[in-house]
């Protein structure tokens, strides 16, 4: 169902969690104290894998779900806290070995706290530390308005996986997932991984089973139920690439297929890292809310971002399809395997993907002269940043509204441009080797700004064959210190050089487009 605004205040209830000190906890929907009072999950249980079954009814716009989650208990607790939004939990059980080689299965009490979009499953006895347990949940929910009709297409980024199934909906809480979807005979289902089998459950009811995913964040999981058709190709390394579209528009998908195959091959060669999945689907979704989405193995696009008709489309349309495809496929290296630790560093995902679309398209289609557009992008980003925008690229974001606001031109365009600057002053070879070091070191993990800067700093002398003196200098060449001024500090620097006969005076100011030194606001602006 559509998101609702709940105006509920925190109720000061004294509650002792895990035998610790008394802390004020909010009131859940049934009036009981909810056992957690933070926006981020407690970390006492960590997901390992999800086993998810969804049965959608596209006519009534209702779906039922069954989820079994394997979790590791990291600290003694009586509550497993997950994210859930607009899901009606009908039954919940937990199973954990009791130390006698037997499994205890216990029904759980369920509490909800709507303002934080969280649900807690309470146990009667503490869960054992360093042992896995299995949480089984049955639930029912409505599709949001965007999913009604003959098509169901998910889009979970940044914090909407919790509307499809109860989950640990934070980017650092990665897990494997096995997905099963029920459908009618006239529909097809595609998901992140290839389909491994189909069971016939009735005269017009089928259940598609998909291979287990790699370890990934919940916002990258996806499935689509439709009557689409597809065309396919294969990369030189054997990856099956398919483009899905409305049957009436399938002839407009051939250019995107050509681009996708070439760009995947380019990225594998450029990074020296194989694409880890056996297939890559690209889907043109009518009325898609975003421009595109990088779900791992199943990227989704607006029709205008993927379909190209040689007879009626313009040169600008062709460039747009090429660039968006390059962007989303770059995410299969930047974002999906190496994900930002938290949403404050979303620019690590989006800035890199934005920059790599220029690098990949320039290498494959030089006749498009996309480097001219990169300069336009950077000058436009500088112009916006000179308007005294309220935040730096990397800034605090905690609740879903703040997180969604991070997906802006700062994260995409300024992020791409400071990477372009970095590539030029470190040299192409250092930049390239540093990126490969970063991707390999943090694969299937999470990273933050400092991890990128460290990877770049670590390869400088390895690449440039430094002398002992140069090596000393590189040890004191602080990439993080330099780049933090561009990522955790807002705005742009303006260098002013004044010459008075033989003397030169140099000073630096915060460059502001519409505020001048005689403005009363000027001194305070120089502190940002």
Head-to-tail CA distance between termini:
41 Å
Q: At CATH's second level, what is the architecture of the largest domain? A: Sandwich
Query: How much of the sequence is in beta strands?
Result: 25-35%
* Shape type: globular
- By DSSP (H or I, 4+ residues per run), the number of helices equals 12
Rg for CA atoms: 25 Å
Q: Which residue ranges are poorly predicted, with pLDDT under 50 across at least 5 consecutive positions?
A: 1-21
Strand order of the largest sheet: 7-6-10-4-3-12-15-14
Structural class: alpha+beta
Tally of extended strands?
Answer: 25
Tell me about the biggest sheet?
Answer: 8 strands, mixed
Helix content: 25-40%
Can you tell me the number of structural domains?
Answer: 3
CATH topology of the largest domain: Immunoglobulin-like
CATH class of the largest domain: Mainly Beta
Mean pLDDT: 89
State the fourth-level CATH superfamily of the largest domain: tricorn interacting facor f3 domain
Keywords: Glycoprotein, Hydrolase, Membrane, Metal-binding, Metalloprotease, Protease, Signal, Signal-anchor, Transmembrane, Transmembrane helix, Zinc
Main location: membrane
Pfam families: Peptidase_M1, Peptidase_M1_N
Subcellular location: Membrane
